[in-house]
Amino acid sequence: MTTVFAALYSDEDMSALVATLLRSRGLDITTVPEQATLGKTDREQLEFATSVGRCILTHNRVDFERLHLQYIEENKEHFGIIVVPQKNAYEVAQRIGILVSTLTADEIRNQLLYG
Q: Where is the DUF5615 domain (predicted)?
């Protein structure tokens, strides 16, 4: 069965307002502070997101591009990585909202996407 909207997990450099704005659009999102994973490495954050079936949202392009390639090399799966430039929270939420409303969770799975 295809899941329509990807469940989301925003990393610690993403504004809390982004999560609030995405929730107001009806999206399922949780954050690093809500999950008590503050201070974990990027790899640990991606592993956590994968363990709970969530696509990770980040501004950290370089490290998550590297992690995505490592996952491919290691034949590991993840639920998606969405990299968004650091803009104001409203623009970031809009970019993410467009992506997750255009693509299904299955289409986002194992993908590195740019918003």
A: 8-109
